[in-house]
Amino acid sequence: MTISRDDILEAYRFRHACKEFDSSRKVSDEDFETIMESARLSPSSFGFEPWYFLLVQDGGLREKLREFSWGGQKQIPTASHLVVILARREFCMRYDSDYVEGLMRNVQKLPDAAIEKKIAVYRKFQESDFKLLESERSLFDWACKQTYIALGNMMTTAAMLGIDSCPIEGFERDRVEEVLARDFGIDTDRFGISCMVTFGFRIREGREKTRQTMEEITRWYR
Amino acid sequence: MTISRDDILEAYRFRHACKEFDSSRKVSDEDFETIMESARLSPSSFGFEPWYFLLVQDGGLREKLREFSWGGQKQIPTASHLVVILARREFCMRYDSDYVEGLMRNVQKLPDAAIEKKIAVYRKFQESDFKLLESERSLFDWACKQTYIALGNMMTTAAMLGIDSCPIEGFERDRVEEVLARDFGIDTDRFGISCMVTFGFRIREGREKTRQTMEEITRWYR
Questions:
Q1: Cα–Cα distances in angstroms (integers) from residue B26 to residues A47, B163, B222, in the given order
Q2: Could you report the per-residue pLDDT of A51-66, keeping only the tens digit for each?
Q3: Which of A76, A145, B22, B31 lies in disulfide reach of B203, CB 3.0 to 4.6 Å?
Q4: pTM for this entry
């Protein structure tokens, strides 16, 4: 079973950063589950799934996020569904962390010898290839990168279902993390915020999409 | 026009990190154009499209990449198509860069007043909200994050067309950038490597997909 090129591209053209939703319309449970399942099935480096998703339907909690989110003023209150995407910090993502070993053992079901080998490769990758241990930030940013794969897939899945979305980076990271610790019960030693994404139905048509041409963003080596 | 939930999820389940391709099978031009178009239409923060795609079909150039890519030993030579995804560096992405202003003027077609306002918001975002100017690396990593949205979409589009893919982070970043400067003519003051991704057709079935459960990666606030 494949999907036609035209239907695929129609979905990518449908998607735009929807700045305000029709708050009277809700995404169905089945459609939202499909969006989340596409996040869950997303690939990540080494398969370590360094993400965690807060599904925020409570209006009071949304308001607390909105206070420090200049880029989500209209989307956060009007969205049918709001997802805060967290990424795992150094404490979880270092090559010698309990999280990484537990994931290999309990999710990936690797035998001991394979775990040992994979840790060695992962250590070299972190220490040398990508130099991720330079700072806490560089390791966290790397975990965030993986969450952007899931973010992209969630928005694409939504568009294929005829659902609008808006990704949100426009917030004060430090202040939002204080809110997450205080009001959401998140352990911010383990998790930091990567981004937010909202889903719902557009209240008006978006502006025409603008992009660089294919020639401006590609170079062939044949 | 929407696509059914089952068809969408079938594509996400079909996608896996394909470690070796059937080198006798090629992705059609039309399908590869669709994959690239889904990258081009991907969203990015502020709409600044901080990406550039090297489409590497030349066998000699692929070999030069493979030399420093332990994670792509089988994929790079057997893939029908290999894409090196670059991200723009500080030189292009700072709030006061020519690239950013040119993109707002020539691609987004914003009037002068809107450009001035957007630059002010972008400057605050970089300086304060996300503290991206802490280091060259933090700004570059942020640009890389945006490219992972495009990366995710390219792999999802491929899967929907029945095409396999493998993302590759397993390389020595510094050495590959030397190759890009020397053999690909890339200005590495402006661009750095984010990741690679290969496309083609699996030569054997992949292992069963493993993932944490939905309960392990989500928390509801109702």
A1: 27, 10, 49
A2: 999 999 999 999 999 9
A3: B22
A4: 0.99
